[in-house]
Design brief:
Keywords: Ligase, Transferase. This protein has 524 residues and is an alpha/beta fold. It is 41% helix and 17% strand. The chain has helices spanning 2-27, 31-39, 45-52, 112-128, 147-163, 183-187, 205-212, 218-222, 224-231, 241-254, 279-282, 293-300, 345-360, 378-382, 385-398, 413-418, 442-449, 451-456, 460-475, 480-483, 496-506, and strands spanning 59-61, 84-91, 94-101, 132-136, 169-173, 176-178, 190-194, 199-201, 236-238, 306-309, 317-324, 327-334, 365-371, 403-412, 428-431, 436-438, 489-490.
């Protein structure tokens, strides 16, 4: 009896000690650090995890992990978690793995133990076949640990690459991330940033000034709007952390768990056969008039709801996730409201990356075509429009997911071929009666083909107008491509949603095999 009581008392003491240690790990070593974090307008790592995951679903691992480093005073500072919180939970009931830098501890800097925790959670995510979300708020490598910290980054990069195309990887930038800390997000599928509080750069403003003499702020060098609109590093930007994390949840709700799953299908109250009468007014028949293709997308998708990717970068091409009759699709659309919808280097790279992601994760691709061609210019040619434009062509040709294209209006030259034409493997190719599929516009073509006749005419302008009309009637009329089997059907614009919904459903079981190979060698 006495022995049992003693054992019970010892266990109670141990449980009390465990509770104290867990409380210490959750609160952090310095209560004032939480106040400083909040004073900057930033949430703590645990507060962020609570917003990201379903309430009460988070399971933490290695909470009591501490570093073993010596020197530079580190042996006297050995906080639990070592500055990173790792574990898993659920988003709308589906498993998601997460790690979050705790800026209150060593500024979120990465050391050996810190890196090992991240390696473990990444390995678990890959093995379990579930998305990985990183909440980044770290100061880079822990200088006091030297090369051990740098090697820790190498392990993260290697796992980012191994997970690429296997599980969705999302990086959320919630503080300053410099040096090696910026490269892991660059390897992931999507990067979210928050204005004013998150920055990314390889070398900070002080180093830039010392080396080049240029003076610039952290936000001016690597802030959210810079990376969203100039560099293209960031896919999504928001004004506050709460909205940002809510949008991460929304994106996860449309993605499959891994490359072996299909995206989740949601019941839709928006009828699949809903007519799109408004489409008749949205797209002008005159190819020289502009319009916003996002309004067309709103009219086609369920409940007018879509999530645009890279909205501020390369705006002449719109990439978005949406649903058609409850099925997730990726939409690629030329944007006549920006640069007349022409394809350039940035748009090609943006579209290629998006198409590759959709293909990797079994998301059907809808392409809305209204493209006058590739952007001409010395800068474009010298900066590699040939090889970089070929990225979009390669991505489409390599994609085996269901692919449906709709020519809304113009489709000229090589850009028409690149925008998922029938000749490069589109499963279904459709066109509106306003389509103009040709090598070039009738005006330019007439000037080339009938140059001599126009020059020799008594009234060159009248002859030019006549030849333009002849060319248009012969080769640019809406049914020329359909007569030759290059489009499957010319449809009433009002029926586009209905046809797309039926086509996506029909292609749901599509299976296509690529030639056996280690991997392709896409243009760079």
């Amino acid at each position: 009896m006495t022995t049992t009581s003693t054992a019970g008392g010892a266990l109670a003491d141990r449980l009390t000690e465990l509770g104290r240690l867990r409380e210490l790990a959750q609160e952090g070593p310095d209560p004032k650090a939480t106040e400083r974090q909040h004073a900057k307008g930033k949430l703590t790592a645990r507060e962020r995890i609570e917003l990201l995951l379903d309430k009460g679903s988070f399971t933490e691992i290695e909470q009591l992990r501490r570093h073993r480093a010596q020197g530079f005073g580190l042996e006297a500072k050995k906080p639990y978690t070592d500055g990173v919180i790792t574990g898993w939970g659920t988003v709308e009931g589906r498993t998601v793995f997460v790690y979050a830098h705790d800026f209150r501890i060593f500024g979120g800097a990465l050391g050996e133990a810190h890196a090992t925790k991240i390696h473990k959670i990444m390995d678990m995510a890959i093995a379990a076949g579930a998305p990985l979300v990183s909440l980044n708020d770290g100061a880079g490598a822990r200088i006091q640990e030297g090369v051990s910290a740098l090697a820790g980054y190498g392990g993260i990069f290697q796992r980012n690459t191994r997970a690429s195309g296997v599980i969705p990887q999302i990086s959320v930038m919630l503080g300053p991330c410099a040096g090696g800390a910026a490269y892991s997000p660059a390897l992931t599928d999507f990067v979210f940033m928050v204005r004013e509080t998150s920055q990314m750069f390889i070398t900070g403003p002080d180093v830039v000034k010392a080396v080049t003499g240029e003076e610039i702020t952290q936000n001016g060098l690597g802030g959210a709007d810079v990376h969203a609109g100039v560099s293209g590093v960031s896919h999504f930007v928001y004004d506050d952390e709460e909205t940002c994390l809510a949008e991460v949840r929304y994106l996860l709700s449309m993605l499959p768990q891994n490359n072996r799953d299909l995206p989740p299908v949601m019941p839709s109250s928006d009828p699949a056969d809903r007519p799109g009468d408004r489409l008749l007014d949205l797209v002008p028949a005159d190819g020289n008039r502009s319009y916003d293709v996002r309004e067309v997308i709103e009219e086609l998708v369920d409940d007018s709801d879509y999530m645009e990717v890279h909205a501020a970068w390369a705006p002449n091409l719109v990439c978005a996730f949406a649903r058609l009759d409850g099925h997730v699709v990726g939409i690629v659309a030329n944007q006549p409201a920006a640069m007349a919808g022409v394809l350039d280097i940035k748009a090609s790279e943006k579209g290629a990356r998006f198409v590759q992601f959709c293909d990797a994760f079994n998301i059907p691709i809808i392409t809305l075509v209204d493209v006058p061609g590739f952007l001409p210019g010395v800068d474009q040619e010298h900066d590699g429009i040939i090889r970089r434009g070929a990225k979009l062509l390669y991505a489409y040709c390599n994609a085996t997911v269901p692919r449906i294209s709709v020519v809304l209006r113009k489709a000229y030259g090589g850009a028409y071929i690149v925008m998922d034409s029938r000749s490069i493997g589109a499963d279904i190719s459709l066109a509106w009666p306003t389509n103009e599929i040709a090598v070039m516009g009738a005006e330019g073509a007439a000037n080339v083909v009938f140059r001599r006749e126009i020059a020799a005419a008594d009234d060159p302008e009248a002859m030019r107008a006549q030849k333009i009309q002849e060319y248009r009637e012969e080769l640019v009329h809406p049914y020329y491509a359909a007569e030759r089997g290059l489009v499957d059907d010319v449809i009433d614009p009002r029926e586009t949603r209905q046809v797309l919904c039926r086509s996506v459903a029909m292609l749901a079981a599509k299976h296509a095999d690529l030639p056996r190979r280690k991997h392709g060698n896409p243009p760079q």
